[in-house]
Design a protein that fits this description.
This protein has 179 residues and is α+β, with helices and mostly antiparallel strands. The protein is built from 4 helices and 6 strands. 26% of the residues lie in helices and 44% in strands. It has a 6-stranded mixed β-sheet. InterPro entries: NTF2-like_dom_sf (IPR032710), SnoaL-like (IPR037401).
């Protein structure tokens, strides 16, 4: 295959991997998240967690339990390829609505993922991910109001299989990476 065409295909596959991570995180879809990492991959969330990605995913149900809303938005994607190895600096805006003992708060983080990817058995997956926060804004109490009359009757997203996307889509299925 033409090397330029292969590079485009590889970059597209990695971009889809990054977006699948955001979707799986936002929907609390831990089965799907596991598919995105190689078994020996690592994850570095700073003092929050550093170790094997599968161990981090094991802890996510408890970590995400108070998170009523997670919404990751990828902005800038910088990728560099070298055969079956790639690196990415991925800019992300991540919104969190979190329940606390005092009520709910909004946390908006602007940051980056420092990623290393490996293509094994023809499939790109994360081999290493580090999360960097560049800025954060906290609003307490939460400014989110899904009960406002302008929203009345709208389909509302939520974590987990009750999210409307799971009953709507046939191809974008729970626990599976987009093929």
């Amino acid at each position: 295959m033409d090397p330029q065409l292969q590079a485009l295909l590889d970059k597209q596959a990695i971009t889809e991997l990054v977006h699948a991570y955001c979707n799986a995180s936002d929907r609390h879809d831990h089965d799907k998240l596991r598919e995105l990492y190689h078994p020996d991959a690592t994850d570095d969330h700073g003092a929050f967690f550093k170790g094997l990605a599968m161990e981090f995913i094991d802890q996510l149900p408890q970590i995400q339990a108070p998170m009523e809303i997670l919404h990751h938005n990828v902005t800038t994607v910088n990728l560099a390829l070298e055969v079956d190895y790639a690196e990415g600096e991925i800019y992300v805006l991540a919104f969190h609505k979190v329940r606390t003992e005092e009520g709910t708060l909004d946390l908006m983080i602007g940051g980056r993922y420092f990623d290393k990817y490996a293509k094994r058995a023809g499939q790109w997956k994360f081999s290493e991910r580090a999360v960097v926060a560049d800025w954060a804004t906290i609003t307490s109490p939460s400014a989110v109001d899904l009960s406002h009359p302008l929203i009345d009757g709208s389909h509302l997203g939520c974590p987990g299989p009750q999210d409307p996307s799971y009953s709507f889509f046939r191809l974008l299925r729970r626990g599976e990476r987009t093929k």
